[in-house]
Specification:
The structure holds two protein chains of two kinds.
Chain A: H1 4-7, E1 24-29, E2 35-40, E3 46-51, E4 55-60, E5 66-71, E6 77-82, E7 91-95, E8 98-102, H2 109-132, E9 145-147, E10 158-163, E11 170-173, E12 179-183, E13 192-196, E14 201-203, E15 213-218, E16 224-229, E17 233-237, E18 242-247, E19 254-259, E20 265-270, E21 275-279, E22 288-290, E23 297-302, E24 309-314, E25 318-325, E26 335-343, E27 353-358, E28 365-369, E29 373-377
Antiparallel strand pairs in A: 1-29, 2-3, 3-4, 4-5, 6-7, 7-8, 8-10, 9-10, 11-12, 12-13, 13-14, 15-16, 16-17, 17-18, 19-20, 20-21, 21-22, 23-24, 24-25, 25-26, 27-28, 28-29
Chain B: E1 9-15, E2 28-31, H1 36-47, E3 55-59, E4 62-63, H2 68-74, E5 82-89, E6 95-101, E7 106-111, E8 119-123, E9 127-131, E10 137-142, E11 148-155, E12 158-163, E13 168-173, E14 181-187, E15 194-200, E16 205-210, E17 215-219, E18 251-252, E19 256-258, E20 265-270, E21 277-282, E22 286-291, E23 296-302, E24 307-313, E25 318-323, E26 328-331, E27 343-345, E28 352-357, E29 364-369, E30 374-378, E31 388-390, E32 404-410, E33 413-418, E34 422-427, H3 432-437
Parallel strand pairs in B: 1-5, 14-18
Antiparallel strand pairs in B: 1-2, 3-4, 3-5, 6-34, 7-8, 8-9, 9-10, 11-12, 12-13, 13-14, 15-16, 16-17, 17-19, 20-21, 21-22, 22-23, 24-25, 25-26, 26-27, 28-29, 29-30, 30-31, 32-33, 33-34
The chains are: A mainly beta, B mainly beta.
Bound molecules: magnesium ion.
């Protein structure tokens, strides 16, 4: 004789969970064609975007002023990611099978010099390696070619160009900024390539392909790599070189995922409209399935500056913002509350919002749209 | 007792902050169907000024916009209540005067102090311009290698500019000279964009707030300044193109830095009473008070939101702070004040990025916002929203609003600059009574 309603946990009202983004604050206009990717620099001052027009652009966050831009390629820029180190100003951008490491000329001379040192140090290391490994044997072709860009005058601020075999769709930095991984979904056993900046060397961590790789992310604090194929998120212990766990979100086609800053929770977005929260301490199955989007989910993102927020972006043109509280008490499960549907991007040729990222400190959210704009929401 | 609305009466007390227009505050009976106009007539009758002064009435932080009857009903009062009405001179809406066109976004405006106002504008094309009130450029300051984000007069014949190239430049302005504007010095040391500047000519000090989270303290007298720190001299730029001769200015370092914020400093000002004390606001949500003699933080209070602008209402001992969360909060900066915020002014629909107090009404201020408007506020009626909204002149209502970046209210009126590449000047006409006095 118990009212089943009374057994449901009472969710707090969104008003009690403020602040969270509710409206467009800034529109970044300038790209011709889709904005594919965006990234906020680790100090939270500059927004970088990459688009189908082959350009990367850097913007003042609040005013929306484009302060710098560069045409990298005739192909789309599919991913941009700032190196997560506050003392340097290094932007990684992928276009076609090239990864460009860029020092945009917007930083102080000290920052610029340090950035160039970090990027150029490996040119010496690579030369040493090459000379000591020639012993008559036919050398195996390296997984990636590191070079200074050929067209130096045009790509003056590109310090390093790394070329792999297949189109790069995604970039992930290790938190210390020494390693970064690229994902080329068509690359099979070459899909994931890990690049070591200090030595200008690249390696392929997986000998066999276990499906089409969509994304990879490094664990926020431990030597662990998350690899998402269309169906699964596999968790590899990098120190022991073993597969430690496989998450089974139950999605037909994973588009994106993100790792909670605490390291024990993962959100997965899928082209089949589902947003899945995994608590890895509970199960390899999702803790919650959130079906709020009407079209494919393209990007999911946790706030990583101490606010219990996450968001998902979709081809339905919306960004959805959620409260996601992870408790220090292991017995208490995460609290998830839908907060707000952000509408503003125009669906363009069936594509909506392609990438999202939170500001490193504030509850400001950035979105990249197929409508040719990026937006700041607060 | 006759209870028909037309004849019912209510006791009111008329009070004001302005001594020269004060009437006896003892309660008097007035018809309860009176609205603003009728009440204004009553006060004018009691005051008998040489010419009528239109008044507005404030109850509980809001302007009375209904009859007293409705107010009593809406607030659950009875006709026996005594209602205290604060009367204020009714403000007259601003009038558009003129716009001065630029080649790029206008990030900052500053009006020359003294009897001959000239408008200084800083723009994203890296050029600061001095304009007369007829809209003629009478001098240009070119030397910054990137956009200017702040520009302020330091005196009647000198000003300072700063912005995206991380340096400040000081300039002299000599009227009637062919080379009216000369760069005096370049101040270097900030490691990120300079967002805001404050000047104090009597103390010979300049403060600069930067995205590097520090506030630079500089002297207008270059003899006081140390050489630039060695690591700020551009290593690479030497190998790049040789800088244009106009860019070459002797470099100096800061007297020191105010360190304590941990996000970009978006607003800085000297306290109105004491040029050795400064206030600053930051994206880090705090308002900080600094002792400029010892370069130490004296006070810090944390608000709910990133702060983007600050101004003082000196007679009220209040600070107004504009936020990215679209509102303006009022704070009492005195150490004894316990409450974090005393009132909130709501109405803007985007970030509030500049604030300026009225030059002649201690209760009024003006704000500039990324929502494309400049708004005039009276803090006595904080709950009523803004008094007036100034739109950008000539804007196409079909295209999205263009951001306003800076505003200053002084004897020339309300001067603002923005993304529409224009300085806009709107006059705030004095109220009738004051016109009679002039
Ligand atoms: Mg992302």
């Amino acid at each position: 004789n118990i009212d089943p309603e009374s057994l449901l946990p009472k969710l707090p009202s969104p008003q009690d969970l403020r602040p969270f983004p509710t409206t467009t604050a800034t529109v970044y206009r300038g790209h011709e064609g889709r904005v594919r990717a965006l990234s906020v620099d680790p100090n939270g001052i500059w927004l970088a975007t990459g688009g189908d027009d082959g350009t990367v652009r850097v913007w003042e966050i609040l005013t929306g002023r484009e302060v710098w831009g560069l045409k990298l390629a005739d192909e789309p820029v599919n991913s941009v990611k700032w190196r997560p180190v506050k003392e340097t100003g290094i932007l990684a951008a992928a276009a076609g099978d090239d990864l460009f490491l860029i020092t945009p000329p917007i930083f102080s001379p000290q920052t610029e010099e340090l950035s160039r040192q970090v990027l150029e140090h490996g040119f010496g290391a690579a030369a040493v390696t090459a000379s000591t490994t020639t012993n008559g044997e036919p050398k195996k072709e390296p997984p990636a070619k590191w070079a200074r860009p050929i067209t130096t005058s045009h790509l003056a601020h590109v310090t390093v160009q790394i070329t792999v075999r297949h189109t790069i769709k995604h970039i992930a930095w290790h938190r210390r900024g020494d390693y970064l991984a690229t994902v080329s979904p068509e690359g099979q056993n070459r899909a994931v390539c890990i690049h070591h900046l200090p030595r200008h060397s690249s390696q392929l961590p997986f000998r066999k392909s276990k499906g089409i790789v969509q994304r990879v992310e490094f664990h926020p604090s431990r030597p662990i790599l998350f690899v998402a194929t269309q169906r699964y998120v596999r968790i590899y212990d990098l120190a022991a070189s073993t597969l430690s766990k496989t998450l089974m979100p139950g999605a037909r086609w994973i588009s994106s995922f993100d790792v909670h800053p605490g390291g024990d929770n993962v959100i997965v977005g899928s082209y089949d409209k589902r947003l899945l929260w995994h608590d890895m301490e509970l199960s390899t199955k999702p803790y919650r399935t959130l079906r709020y989007h009407e079209k494919a989910i393209r990007s999911v993102s946790y706030h990583k500056g101490g606010r219990p927020l996450f968001a998902s972006a979709s081809d339905d043109g919306t960004v959805q913002v959620f409260h996601g509280m992870v408790y220090a008490d292991m017995l208490e499960n995460p609290l998830l509350v839908p907060l707000k549907v952000l509408k503003g991007h125009k669906v363009t040729k069936a594509l909506g919002v392609l990438d999202i990222e939170w500001h490193p400190k504030e509850c400001w959210l950035f979105s990249a749209g197929a409508d040719g704009t990026a937006r700041l929401w607060n | 007792m006759d209870t028909t609305p037309s004849t019912s009466q209510v006791q009111v007390k008329f009070v004001t902050h302005e001594a020269e227009i004060a009437v006896n505050p003892a309660p008097i009976l007035v018809p309860s169907n009176l609205k603003r106009f009728g009440l204004s007539q009553v006060v004018n009758h009691l005051l008998s000024p040489t010419s009528p002064i239109p008044f507005d009435f404030v109850i509980d932080g809001s302007f009375l916009r209904t009859s007293l009857d409705s107010y009593i009903a809406d607030n659950g009062l009875t006709s026996e209540s005594i209602i205290t009405l604060e009367y204020v001179r009714a403000a007259v809406p601003p009038k558009y005067l003129s716009s001065f066109e630029h080649d790029d976004w206008v990030s900052s405006v500053s009006v020359r102090p003294g009897s001959e106002p000239l408008i200084l504008s800083g723009a994203y094309d890296g050029i600061a311009r001095v304009w007369n009130l007829s809209g003629e450029v009478i001098g240009q300051a070119a030397g910054h290698t990137a956009g200017i984000k702040s520009s302020r007069w330091t005196d009647t014949n000198s000003f300072v500019t700063a912005g995206l190239d991380r340096s400040l430049r000081t300039w002299t302005y000599t009227p009637d000279d062919a080379e009216a504007i000369q760069c005096v010095a370049e101040y270097v040391g900030h490691t990120s964009t300079v967002e805001c500047i404050a000047t104090n000519s009597s103390a010979q000090r300049i403060l600069s707030g930067s995205a590097d989270a520090n506030i630079g303290v500089w002297s207008t007298s270059i003899n006081e300044l140390p050489p630039p720190p060695a690591d700020t001299v551009p290593i690479r730029s030497k190998r790049r193109k040789v800088s244009k001769s106009t860019n070459a200015a002797k470099q100096y370092g800061a007297l020191g830095y105010l360190r304590g914020h941990d996000s970009p400093v978006s607003g800085v000002m000297f306290t109105p009473q004491d040029s050795t004390v400064a206030y600053s606001v930051s994206w880090d949500h705090t308002i900080k008070t600094w002792d400029l003699t010892t370069l130490t933080q004296v006070d810090s209070r944390t608000t709910q939101h990133p702060l983007l602008s600050i101004c003082a209402l000196p007679q009220l001992s209040q600070l107004a702070c504009g936020s990215s969360a679209r509102h303006i909060t009022l704070h009492d900066p005195r150490a004894s004040a316990s409450s974090v915020s005393t009132a909130t002014l709501r109405g803007h629909t985007n970030a509030v990025v500049a604030l300026s107090p009225s030059p002649d009404n201690q209760f009024q201020l003006v704000s500039a916002s990324h929502d494309g408007t400049v708004r005039v506020w009276d803090v006595r009626a904080a709950h009523s929203g803004n008094l007036f909204t100034i739109q950008r002149q000539g804007r196409d209502p079909k295209i999205p609003a263009t951001k306003v970046f800076d505003v200053e209210w002084n004897s020339c009126g309300i001067v603002s600059g923005g993304e529409d590449k224009k300085i806009q000047i709107d006059s705030m006409p004095a109220v009738e009574g004051e016109q009679e006095m002039l």
